[in-house]
Amino acid sequence: MSRRPQTELAVLGALSTGSMTGYEVRAAITEILGDFWHESFGQIYPALNALEQAGAIARSTPGRTSGSRFEITPAGTVLLRERLAEPHHATPPRNGLLLRLFFGTQLPPGRSRELLEAEIERAEVALARFAAIRADMDTEPPGAEHDYRALTLAYGEHHARAHLAWATEALRALPDRD
Amino acid sequence: MSRRPQTELAVLGALSTGSMTGYEVRAAITEILGDFWHESFGQIYPALNALEQAGAIARSTPGRTSGSRFEITPAGTVLLRERLAEPHHATPPRNGLLLRLFFGTQLPPGRSRELLEAEIERAEVALARFAAIRADMDTEPPGAEHDYRALTLAYGEHHARAHLAWATEALRALPDRD
DNA sequence: AACCTCATGTAACACGTTACATGATTAT
DNA sequence: ATAATCATGTAACGTGTTACATGAGGTT
């Protein structure tokens, strides 16, 4: 089961929304997909070169104002659709927080409380950010694109609320010594 | 920021619950931590050797019935506590499902529906498994260990319920053409 | 005899981060 | 001028999976 580099998929997806420099691709992925996807420069630039070699994107150096901009080619659009249709493989779980809490009796006193309080804080920050995004999104024109974006936002909201509820409940259920 | 190998932490944690062969360590991690942690043999055996070198675990070959069993040493217990107390770093998100749904308009017709239905199925299976674990756990002796295990189980339950609710809702909100 | 599970390991590869290096443009 | 941001890339390393190889012991 050879996993195709998913970085190319994310980069291609970003470029399907408009032409960008590599730097902007990274910014777009961080800002728009940031809650469920991450790419570093060390992945993006090689991916851009590979996609260019494959003819999926084209480099243009129009006004020579700064770096070169990339845009998706018709072949690239076909490739994007193919890759998106491929099955996704859930990444094996590696949750450091849960691992620590599972062996919670081995933690220093008070540490598990700290961990849970930090999670509550994180969930609240995420929910506030999601609320802002949703307010912003309500001003967008309706349509299929909007619906799909709302769907991914709803994912973040549901899971953040669940996380908050869990951490709050867990804090109360903590053994007395902690 | 050099990430210490977390595999050693999981292996040490598993061995803190009793002596095991490498094969059993893998089974224990899969069965007990499986919902939030994963290790492959390719990681476990090198980790066992490294931990043995470091004096954190000891190999014993008692009845020579089969492979050698490992048990944690006092130094290993100290090491486990140190490692558990270290801050955990959230793994950067890479959610292939969400990436595909975000670009849902590029998916073949019906594909997003399939994806969501598969998620509902997965969440329901997970919830059934959690219910069985919880029933099992209610017969355990109470105490701090029990409390911490209940806490990690509750995490799985909260998130699985949120996932189910999201996928169900998303299915209804899908654009008409899909 | 064939097969399954237990058991241990290695090698090749895929994936991804981090640190480093370098320089252009733009704002203060 | 100086600093911040934009921009591009490479090299080293860490981490982790998958496929392969090998063999013991027990079951059908």
Automatic annotation (TrEMBL), chains A, B:
It holds the Pfam family PadR. InterPro entries: Tscrpt_reg_PadR_C (IPR018309), Tscrpt_reg_PadR_N (IPR005149), WH-like_DNA-bd_sf (IPR036388), WH_DNA-bd_sf (IPR036390). It comes from Nostocoides vanveenii. Residues 11-81 form the Transcription regulator PadR N-terminal domain. This is PadR family transcriptional regulator. Residues 94-174 form the Transcription regulator PadR C-terminal domain. It comes from the Bacteria.
